[in-house]
Amino acid sequence: MDLTNKIVWVTGASSGIGEAICHELMKYNCKIVLSSRRESELLRVKNELKIKDENVLILPIDLEKSNEAENWVEKVIVKFGRIDFLINNGGISQKSLVEETTEAVERKVMEINYFGNVALAKAVSKYMIKQKSGKIIVTTSILGKFGLPFHSTYAASKHALYGFYDSFRLELKKDNVSVLLVSPGFINTNVAVNSITGDGSTLNEDSPAQINGMKTNVFARKLVGAIKSDKNHIFIGSKELLSIPFKTFSPNLFYSIMLKLSKGK
Q1: For the chain, how far is it from start to end, CA to CA, in angstroms?
Q2: Cβ–Cβ contacts within 10 Å for residue 237, how many?
Q3: Is the pLDDT of residue 265 over 80?
Q4: Are 131 and 81 in contact (CB under 8 A)?
Q5: Coiled coil: which residue ranges (predicted)?
Q6: Model confidence at 55: pLDDT above 50
Q7: 3 state SS for 87-109
Q8: What is the DSSP string of 3-19?
Q9: Helix 69-80 and helix 117-131, axial crossing angle in degrees, nearest 10
């Protein structure tokens, strides 16, 4: 699909992967909707993009408030009249043992990563169906394919996205609307630092895997390349992606090794 001059909505646009995607989109003269919770950071990104006011909409949203999704979409339609691509990238990570994770934290992660994500896609898809065109791109994770200690709720939220969008994709096909699921491996962002712990506090601790992960501009270039294709799913990362076939073909050995690696962390 051609991205040139298209209307693209990016959530989680204030930092990390989302910010890098916006810079990559500028190569195609896209009109961009920038969304995240932090309006000040969205304004910073807008200024760094050097994009004209008529080609950008700053739209702060909180995915935890999924009941507001239709109102958010209406603001985009008022500004641009249509939505060609939704890059549903906003989310939150979690790191804590199951027995130390409160139900409130579990619900928060699911509200943001699953219910907020899905509510926005459903609201946007109504307009894409009327247009008979559009593409929804969803950032999941390799932890949507297996679970690891300390990441139970995060992994659960990403597993849920696979189940929903694999089904939704088939329903949208008749209306010429497509879905691309994108599974990042370890990407060099602050996702680990900003993870919440079992009591809801911020972890404030980086992960060696993230520090040594793929640079966000490299990820963004690969993602935009996938958006232009007809792919339904893509993994983006480095050697950690080998964990997917490893788990499929040798699950007992896979989990034995993962357990050893996780001890003491």
Answers
A1: 43
A2: 20
A3: no
A4: no
A5: none
A6: yes
A7: EECCCCCECCCHHHCCHHHHHHH
A8: -TT-EEEEESTTSHHHH
A9: 40
Tokens of 162: 């696979």
pLDDT tens by residue, 211-227: 889 999 999 999 999 99
Position of tokens 């964990």? 243
SS (H, E, C) 116-161: HHHHHHHHHHHHHHHHCCEEEEEECCHHHCCCCCCCHHHHHHHHHH
Please report which confidence band the pLDDT of residue 263 belongs to, taking 50, 70 and 90 as the band edges.
low
Catalogue the active-site residues: 154
- pLDDT, tens only, 68-101: 999 999 999 999 999 999 999 999 999 999 999 9
Catalogue all structural domains in the chain, each as residue range(s) with its CATH number.
7-240 (3.40.50.720)
Amino acid type, 138: V
| DSSP code at position 176 | T
String of DSSP letters for 213-252: SB-HHHHHHHHHHHHTTT-SEEEE-SGGGGHHHHHHH-HH
User: CB within 8 A of 209, min separation 6: which ones?
Assistant: 186, 192, 240
Instruction: For residue 207, give every residue at least 6 positions away whose Cβ sits within 8 Å of its Cβ, in sequence order, or none.
Output: 186, 192
Q: Which of 22, 17, 47, 45 is nearest to 190 (CA)?
A: 17
Give the residue carrying structure tokens 């993962």.
Answer: 258
